[in-house]
Design a protein that fits this description.
The chain is 89% helix and 0% strand. The chain is mainly α. Among the domains are: 125 residues, Alpha Horseshoe (Serine Threonine Protein Phosphatase 5, Tetratricopeptide repeat), CATH 1.25.40; 80 residues. It is rod-shaped and about 210 Å long.
Length: 479
Amino acid sequence: MRKTYILLLVFFISLAAYAKDFNEVTVPDTNAVIKLNNQAFANRLTNPEQTVIDATEALALAKKLNYYNGIGEAYRIIGIGKSYLNQSEKAFDNYLNGVTYFIKAKNLAGEAKTYNNIGNLFRDQDYNRCLDYLNKSLAIANKIKDQHLIAALSLNLGNVYTRKNSFQQALKYYDQSMAGFEKLQDEVNLVQCVLNKGFVYYKLNQYDMALKLLLEAHDSAKRLDLNETVASVNLTLASLYMAQKKYTAAINVVREGLAYATLVKDPKLNYDYKHTSYELEYSRKNYERAIFYLREIYKEDSVTFKQNTSVQIRLIEAKRKQEEQTKENERVADRQAYERSRFWAVSTVAGLLLVVIGLLVGNVKRKAKTNAQLTMLNEEVLRQKDNLDRINHHLEEIIDERTKDLQIKNKKLSEHSSYLSHQIRGPIATLRGLINLEKEGLVDQEECISMMDKCVSEIDEKIIEMSDMLHGPSHNSNS
């Protein structure tokens, strides 16, 4: 029985150790992944190609470490880099990968930021889809109280309403965004807010306010080395100067902006500068140069560009949904297999537990029976002990009585011995005297014999008396 318990104990200890090893999660040093992702994100406005390179390196390292948050963030930043490089389809694909890993890691903040990025992809193609993703992101941001993301989403919502020509609604969101970024002391995004507000005031024909805001954004962007932002500011400044017929100023900002656009290698910005250059030359009545730019624009027709991009994104999205459904089906199958395995494992453990419980119950019953038998034996022993105590007590009484009797007899014997010794000594002395007298011839022989017979009879009586005293206690006690 003892061996059975030991074997069961070893089995459960081994099972616990196996479960611990199976579930133990290694916590790697993820600092390198985080550093690479932060570095990549910091370069998004000045060098989006480097952003993609650094984030790709972070992705490879995060996959080796099986670090879900790092993988999701790397995919998201690669998507941002691709977006700035005007590769919307690749950006969308990376964003979807990022969402997948953020969901696996249960990272709501990462998931919300990626939905924000996807919304920005649809900003120029599909306003409704864009608003859907931005509002989805905003709901999560409000839930987790991510103030930076809430401010960024307000900025992006303002951009959508600007494109929809809902300028007052756009200004409302820009003001909310600026308040948030000022509180967070985020200079980069504040520059973007100022730029966007300047563009809205330009659209509202409030040129003085627009010029003030655009120049402020221009100076801040240069100070912070935000090359793409400088190029974007100059586009709006060129349109503003053309509206005011300040062609020299317009030419200067177009040249500067085109240099920055070339520096950041953004095809979309280069296309926008060709369009702005066409408008500038047309406004100056330089029709030959205007036709040149128009031909360039025709090659990269923006409507076709938008439609193709939107179609490609939709195809990617549909493909991804199909892949996700397939993966979900596989996950369901795996989960069902796992549940079956767990069921049998639990059933096995439960069966073993029942066996152990049965053994324990049997052992308890045997112990109870043994205890009952021991109790009965104890009771019997107690009874025997009581009997022995009573017998011993009775024997002690008998011994005490016999001892007292012997003491009395010894006393009487001693007394009678003294008495008989005294009584016998007289006749013996008489006999000895008679013998001596007879030897000397001083007494008659017959008389001597008669007296000696009398002495012997007296001695005999004394001996009989002593024997009666020793063997007849009742008689002795009465006498």
